[in-house]
Structures are given as C-alpha cells and as structure tokens.
Amino acid sequence: MNKATLSPDYPDLRKIADWFTPINFRAIQNDTFSKHAIGTGQWFIENPKFQDWLSLRDFPVLWVKGIRKHLVCCYLYFRLLKLLDSWCWKDNSFVSSHFPVVILYDIHSPLRFRSIVIRHLDRSFSNNQDIAIVFAYCQYTARHSITDYLASFVKQLVERHSALFSVVKSVYMGHLRDATRPHQHELLELLRTFVSLFTRVYIVIDALDEVPEDGRDGFLKALMSLQASLLVTSRSSHWLHNKQYIDIEDENQKDIDLFIDKKLQESSRLSVLLKGKEQIKEQIGKKLRETSKSMYVTCGLEYSIQS
Known about the structure:
The chain is an alpha/beta fold. The chain has helices at about 10-20, 25-35, 40-45, 50-55, 80-85, 110-125, 145-160, 165-180, 185-195, 215-225, 250-265, 270-275, 280-290; strands spanning about 60-65, 100-105, 130-135, 200-205, 230-235, 245, 300-305.
C-alpha cells in the first residue's frame, strides 16, 4: 500500500475514528492480553493449521472450535488471599480439612486465548504497512450490529494506516454535511476498497456465535466477501461445518496446569500455604478441570473454606 506523504494530525484522526464508532476493541485486547498466563496458547501458534492459515492465500478461513471450554482464556481471582486472615491457623500451619471445597463461578469478561493470537499477528506484522489486522470481541450482552462491527474495522484500519485517512475523512465530511451516518453497505464497500490496497488482511472474530442470530449469517457473509484471511472462534455451527478447523479441547488440560502453576507462583502467601501439599494442589486442578467442561464464558476462582 502506498504510504501517505503527510501523517494526519492526531486530534483529527482520533475525532474521526471515534466518530465512526465509540467501540474500542483495541482497548479490550490490551486489557485481555495483560491478564494471560505466559506460555499458554503457544501450542496453538505452533499448530500447522494456524501456520498454514498465516502463510497460505488459499486458506482463507480457519475455525477454532471448543473455545468456550478453554481455560487459558480465563483468569483466576484468588479470593483465598482475602480469606487467609480469617482462616484457622495454628503455629503458622493449617489443617487440610479447612480446605474441602473449591467453587468456580462465571463472570463475563473478554477471553484470553484470542488475545494471544491477535498479539502474535500484531507483533509479526507491526512494521509492515502492506499487511493489516482487524479484530472483534463479540458479546451477546453488547448487542452490536453488523454496522457496528464494520465501523470498528474501518476505525482500526485508519488508526494504524494513516494512508487511509484522506478517504476516511472525505466520508466523514460528507456525512457531517448531511447529518447522516454510514450504513452497512457503504461501510462494506469502503472496507473492500481498503482490503484491496493491502497485500494481506487478517481478521480475527471472537465468539461469532454470540452475534444475534438474526444477523449472524449476514455478518459471516459480509466478512467472507472481503477476501481476507479470516479466523473465527465459535462453538459448533452450521455456517462453518465445511471449513478447516482446530479443536482446542485436547490441549485444554496442559494450559490449565500451566495457568494454575503461574498463579500459585505469583502469590508468595499461597506458595507458602501450599508448600509440600501436593494433594491440595491436585484438588484445585481437578475441580477446575471438572468445572471447565461446562463453562460458558470466562471464569474466576473463589475458594470456600469450611471447617
């Protein structure tokens, strides 16, 4: 893609980017990735199918399924730390019978796994202006429309590729004059024009199945019409049944174990508390794995202490 000779002033870029949509998936990505456990998800980056999708132009769609059950996407809130002071102690030791129950509860927050993929793409191509990366975190409760998602892609592209600014500004000025907003088809045509300017565009969509059902097929159709390399995470779906896929279920347990170890190491108090008590550690991991089998969204971990 030809580079602009002059970069737009930041205030103008920010104002126009935010006019297209206030949705900020990049902020969600930044927060999500900051909470991942180092080392988790590396197996996926090294997976041959992912590497083929990354490098081959005739491999446009990769479906990642089973994602809802993948605990690498989760972070653990160690509420036990808040309970230690009220716990029953004797000579700086504890009785294992005080730790019989581990309770898992659901919370709705962005999933970590996709953030690892997006981070890998961003780091791999950050210095290449001929390659673009856009992404979306879909949440049923957010109720974003197809127009919202397409506008967010325009926003992400202009934020990272200033050569597109003049075109985006022209669209902005036209709508400002008429007191109107870009509609879905206009945004799709704008994105098709932008995609044609790059040698490669990667699109990552988290939880496609959380897009409202009445718009899901249209959204997927719009994405595939862009002729980009598309990675979609979703539970089983009829729209993706004939696509190449990676089922992450088999790798789930390895990342759970790695995640637990990381969190235990991060907490000096828990490390002391559980030192030499492998049975308790195994109990935590076992309960966590059992609960992850029915997990819907990301979860936190709370310990309930009973005497």
